[in-house]
Amino acid sequence: MAGSNSLYEILGLSMAVNRQNNAFSGSVNNNNNHKNLELATNTTPENEVDNSSNILTSVSSLFNNPRFSDITLVVGSERFHAHKLLLATASDVFETMLTSDRWQDGNAGEITFHESEECLPVFSIVMRYIYTGKISLTMENVIPVLVLADKYNLLPLKESCAEYMASHLAESCSACTIVSWYQYAKTCDLKEFEKICCKFIVLNIGIVILSEDWVRLDKSNLMDFLRRSDMVIESEFALFNAVVSWMISAEHVEDIEENLEDIVPLIRFPWMKPQELSDLEHLDFVNKYYKYFAPHILSAYRYHAVIEEYRTKEKFRFPNSQLVCRNYTNADIKMNFNKKVSGFSNARGINYKSTFDAILCNSYADRENFFNCVINYYPKGLPFSIPVDSSAKLSLQLLQADRSPAQVSCEVSVIIYARHKDIRYVSQCIEIEHTFGGMQELAIDLLDLALLNKDSPYLFDDVFEIHLFVKRLGSS
């Protein structure tokens, strides 16, 4: 039929229309499905899966396991089947060793490590740490572990060693390791632990000088300590004897004259009593090297012989560093007061008030210049009982007894003793500058009362002990 479409054309058009309809219909259905899927996704709660412990167990099983091992580490008489991926991930030092073209053994299947005698026994536990993240630290192994952690830059392990040592400082005194710990802290760049360790040594130098570790102190570190005024020590004479022991030890005796020239000026001879200066002059060691001591001893004698008014003149002037008082605990030096309270944990309305005379100058020519201090605890220590809550603090109250209007500027230091087993040590020191005069009272918060229970490390046989130092500022 003229003008009519052929059957094939009609069928083709029909099929095309059907395809379009099907395509349109399908797109609508797909969009609905997407909407339903989005709705389902938004309404389904998350369920986080944590199989990290299983993964860690699997990795841990590879320690010293030849399975998948691609390198062997030879350390002393031991051989460790290791995995480059884990070593490089744990340490950038290992990464450089195993990947750098400059390291000849990087591509070798076996590498020999040369470790010190102290580190050989702990290398295996450090390797195990790399695979497991676990290690058992002790007083005996913490230093060699730290040395390896520093050598291979295992930063988390270094921090763990520092935390362990910081929590065992009291034990380190009896174990004669405190000086070594301090010097390794400086070597390994453990800044925070170095500060903690240094402060502990300064506050407990009286214990440290009696340990075998004392003579291992480097000269530069010894000089740094001798420059400090916050050192707690029985007397300058006791400190002098400790320095002499350091000088004549096998570690330092070869450089004794050089050490004398550098170290003797750091001894504060004016803080020795005249009798101690006389005793010092009769020591064989001092007589042998008298030229290093003579000018300092003579100046100290003059300090005790001349009143302050004349000492301030030019010809009697002393180096300021020589005249600054340390925290001397000897009762003969009338700038300190040791206060002990028995039965402290159960005490309530007991009067703990004490008084002591604080000299204004250590010179024997000015020994009559002093002022009287009154010390009391609060809230314990009052002559009556008062209610306290669990957050209350034990405070020390200090004032001038005669309430003289004359003002005296002082540095007040309070050290608090603690016990670990049979070791009595200084746990902390509080330092405050204060001007006494008239009604001006000084209150110092010491500890939370909650810490002072019967089992407290601050109580030994239920005795609470502090030492108070009152040092006039600017005395000469």
Describe the structure.
Pfam families: BACK, BTB, TRAF_BTBD17. It comes from Lingula anatina. The protein is an alpha+beta fold. Among the domains are: 60-161, Potassium Channel Kv1.1, Chain A (2-Layer Sandwich), CATH 3.30.710; 334-472, Apoptosis, Tumor Necrosis Factor Receptor Associated Protein 2, Chain A (Sandwich), CATH 2.60.210. Helix content is 40%, strand content 20%. The protein contains 19 helices and 14 strands. The strands form four sheets. Strands 6, 10, 11, 13 and 14 form a five-stranded antiparallel sheet that branches. A four-stranded antiparallel sheet has the order 7-8-9-12, with no helix packed on it. Strands 2-1-3 form a three-stranded mixed sheet. The termini are far apart.
Quick overview of this protein structure:
It comes from Lingula anatina. With 476 residues, the chain is an alpha+beta fold.
Essential attributes:
Potassium Channel Kv1.1, Chain A, 4-stranded antiparallel sheet, Apoptosis, Tumor Necrosis Factor Receptor Associated Protein 2, Chain A, 14 strands, alpha+beta, disordered N terminus, 5-stranded antiparallel sheet, 476 residues
CATH domain topology of the domain at 334-472:
Apoptosis, Tumor Necrosis Factor Receptor Associated Protein 2, Chain A
CATH superfamily of the domain at 334-472: Apoptosis, Tumor Necrosis Factor Receptor Associated Protein 2, Chain A
Amino-to-carboxy terminus distance:
134 Å
Total beta strand runs: 14
Sum up the overall morphology in one term.
globular
CATH class of the domain at 334-472: Mainly Beta
What summary fits the major beta sheet? 5 strands, antiparallel
- Tell me the number of helical segments per DSSP (H or I, 4 or more residues long): 19
Proportion of helical residues: 40-55%
What percent of residues are in strands? 15-25%
Structural class: alpha+beta
The Cα radius of gyration reads 37 Å
Overall pLDDT metric? 83
CATH architecture of the domain at 334-472: Sandwich
Low-confidence parts: 1-28, 381-386
Pfam family, one: BTB
Protein name: BTB/POZ domain-containing protein 17 isoform X1
InterPro entries: BACK, BTB-POZ/Galectin-3-binding, BTB/POZ_dom, SKP1/BTB/POZ_sf, TRAF_BTBD17
Domain BTB: 69-139
